[in-house]
C-alpha cells in the first residue's frame, strides 16, 4: 500500500499478502518463499464495446450484429425490472431526454439505449491477476496494461487503491520515448520501514485502451523489485488514476471496467446486489472505511488493494480481545518489506470483521479464521495511528466476487456474504 501527499510528500505503507510457514510479505504483498510471483507477458487486447444504433424508421438499413442485439436485450431486460419512476431518475441523471416516452416500454428502450451509449465510453479489459487461480483474490493483484509507447508499448501496471500516486519503475521509464518523460522535483517518501527520496515524472502519450491521458500521467519513479513484483511490472496505479473513473472489479468473471464518472448514479453500473460502504479521505489522500473487529468499537481502515491480507495494528487487535501474548496469535514466517528492501516481522490472528455500511443500511461481515496480519507498521504511525486502532483492509475483503470503487463519490460497493476464499 502506498500514498502520496498532494504537495511534495509520498507516503507508502506496507501491508500483507499471503499465509504460509515460509511466506514473505512485500509492501502489501506476501509471496510464498519457495515461489516467485510472475506475470504472463501475453497482453490481452483492451476492448471498448461499441454500439451500432438501429433506427427502425429507416427500414432496417443499419446492420446490427448478433452481439449488439444481445447487448441491447441485456440492458432492456434490466430496465424491465425497474419502475418507471426509477427509470426516469436514471435518465435524468444521465441527461437523457425522456419527454417523448409515454409508455413504460418507451422508458425501458430509452434507458437501454442510454446505458449502451455510456458503456461505449467505458474501457473494459480482462481482469488479469498475478498468481495462480482466477477469481480468487489470493491469486494476485489486479493488473491492467497501459500503452506507454517506446520500445515496450503495452506495459503491466498493478492497481493499488492503497496508493494516492502512481508509481513507475526505472525500467519502464528507460523504454519510453525520452520526449514523453518530463522530470519533476524530487519528493520525500515513507515506506512501511523508513523514509526515501523519489523522483516525480509526468508521462505523456499514455493510453489505456481507447482512453488517452491528455494531460499525462503523474508518477513517482520507484524500483518495485524489492517488494517482490516481477520485473515485467511497469508500476502501480493509485488513486490519482482511479479517481478518473468508476472502477468495477469483477473477480468472478475476470473483467475490469473503467466507467465514466457518474455511472452508478445514472444506472449504467448495477450495484443493487452489493453493500454500499461510505469512505472518507484521510489527510494524506488515502480512502478509509469504518470497521469493527470482534464486535469492538469501530475504527478507521485504509482501503488497500495492494495487500492480499488485511493488517491490523496491535492496539486494534487488543481492542478485539487478542493481545500480543494471546495463544491465538501465530508468529514467524511472515515479513513486511518496503520498496527500500527493509523488512519487519508480522504476526497473524483470527478476527471477525465488520465493515460498516450506511446508517440504516447493510454492513459487510468477514470471517478471517486466522488470515489477518497484525503488526505496528511504521507507516501506520506516520498516518497518525500510533495510539489508536488502525488497519489496512486488503483483498481478502475487497476482492470477493465483485466490487465497485468510486473514489470521486467516496463510496465503495462490496459483495455480500461471508466467504473469504
Automatic annotation (TrEMBL):
It comes from the Eukaryota. Residues 1-39 are annotated as: Disordered. It holds the Pfam family Asp_protease_2. Residues 7-23 have a biased composition (Low complexity). InterPro entries: Peptidase_aspartic_dom_sf (IPR021109). This is Peptidase A2 domain-containing protein.
